[in-house]
Amino acid sequence: MTDWHVGQLIICVNDDFPDDAGKLFSRLPRKGEVFTIRQVGVCPVMNALGIRVEEIIGVMTVYGIEQGFFASRFRPARKTSLESFTAILNRTPELVDS
After folding, report:
1. Is the dihedral of CA 76, 11, 68, 53 positive or negative?
2. How far apart are the first and last CA of the chain?
3. Is 71 in contact with 49 (CB distance < 8 Å)?
4. Digit-coded pLDDT (tens) for 21-36
5. What is the pTM of this model?
6. Residue 59: exposed, middle, or buried by beta-carbon count in 10 A (0-12, 13-18, 19+)?
7. How far apart are CA 71 and CA 20, in angstroms?
8. For the segment 52-85, what is each residue's pLDDT rounded down to a tens digit?
């Protein structure tokens, strides 16, 4: 199980939304986009973990609660150091005799 927390960087892994979902948010996340968690909680209606992100605002429900996204649509972003990419770029290819 993932420990979600405010300020955490996450990546959208599922952008397969119902057709009418666009009415509920300022925009919808796209697969591969990075977001910042601003709130984590359990959706009482769906009994599922939900998150709200800094980059997208949801509309208010009839209960006065802002729409959020199911946490299952995201995964934590992995921290990768610049040194890892530099090392890959600086590798010298091995020549093989044919």
Report:
1. positive
2. 50
3. yes
4. 888 888 999 999 999 9
5. 0.74
6. exposed
7. 19
8. 999 999 999 888 888 899 999 999 998 776 666 6
What whole-number distance in Å separates Cα of residue 90 and Cα of residue 12? 31
- Cα(38)–Cα(83) distance, integer angstroms: 30
Residues 83/43, Cβ–Cβ less than 8 Å: no
Residues 51, 40: contact at Cβ < 8 Å? yes
- Secondary structure letter of residue 27 according to DSSP: S
Query: What is the predicted pLDDT for the residue at 46?
Result: 79
Distance CA 59, CA 57 (A): 7
